[in-house]
Amino acid sequence: MGRGKGIFFIMTGAILWGIGGTVAKKLFQQYGIDMGWLVTIRLLIAGFLLLGVQSLKKGPASILEIWKSKKFSLQLILFGLVGMLGVQYTYMASIEKGNAAVATLLQYLAPVIIMIYLFVSKQSAPTRKEMYAVTLALAGCFFLLTNGSLSQLSVPSLAVIWGLLSGAALAFYTLYAVRFLERYDSLVIVGWAMMIGGVALSVIHPPWDMKVTSLPMEAYLYLSFVIIFGTMLPFWFYIESLNSLSPKESSLLGSLEPLAAVLTTVFWLKDSFGLFQWIGTSCLMVMILFLAFNKEDS
């Protein structure tokens, strides 16, 4: 039951991430929302809401407990800056410098980075199951996001650099979060990480710099969706999934994000969907079913 709950959390979170990315793209293109400002405001508001939920559930003292430990306080600050802010900002920067296809493809090198790190640090070779899952995930992302055309990967070097950093940040986020879960609630971890990242980015992109009073109601609805359903819930669900799934499994099942992004782009933004993208969709679905019905190897 715990494993099934973890799979539900990571799959739901990844789908919301993907949809949130498509909605964010619409905010950038149609309403001229600044990328840095959006990252700042979504982190601050989502973090505040998550800590508010935790306070209502278990009392205000529960959100302050982590700061009583110097060790965990320093680790939380590192997690907020390198993990949370790192994932958010590098991915958006890669999209800004290049395109969403390359940015997402490079970000989903995270499972490979995780396996390499675990192999080097623990001298544990990846299992056959994990190698199959990685192959399906990477093949699925490639076909889904490029439609089989290598020419679409011809982007500025800065986009590639930001995309690789995004993959590394997602790997760090996934691995580093595990150390908190035995002592603290996931709401506390994600909420404070978002607040830390948002406050740090406010130095460069102050939330009050953007004039939003002239935006139409539709833009406010999109902005609310990005903050709550594209940031607050998926990041919380991702961390929560680590209570019952391994970091490698969570990062692999997170490949549903590009699937959700492409499908919403096709049916909402009316972009075309090619044969190779359907092949990529099939690869991801097979990978998800493979992980869902095969327990972690000992």
Give your account of this protein's structure.
It is a single chain. The protein has helices at residues 2-31, 35-58, 61-64, 70-97, 100-107, 110-122, 128-146, 157-181, 186-202, 217-241, 247-253, 256-267, 275-292. With 298 residues, it is mainly α. The protein is globular, with a radius of gyration of 19 Å. Helix 1 packs antiparallel against helix 10 (217-241) and helix 7 runs parallel beside helix 11 (247-253). The mean pLDDT is 85. The relative contact order is 0.22. It has 13 helices and no strands.
SSE order and pairing:
Elements: H1 2-31, H2 35-58, H3 61-64, H4 70-97, H5 100-107, H6 110-122, H7 128-146, H8 157-181, H9 186-202, H10 217-241, H11 247-253, H12 256-267, H13 275-292
Helix pairs in contact: 1-10, 1-12, 2-4, 2-9, 2-10, 4-5, 4-8, 4-9, 5-7, 5-8, 6-8, 6-11, 7-11, 7-13, 8-11, 9-10
Q: Summarize this, please?
A:
The protein has 298 residues and is mainly alpha-helical. The protein is built from 13 helices and no strands.
Q: What global shape is seen?
A: globular
Approximately how much beta-strand content do the residues carry? Answer: under 5%
State the order of secondary-structure elements, H for helix, E for strand.
Answer: HHHHHHHHHHHHH
**Percent range of helical residues:** over 70%
Question: Tags for this entry?
Answer:
298 residues, mainly alpha, 0% strand
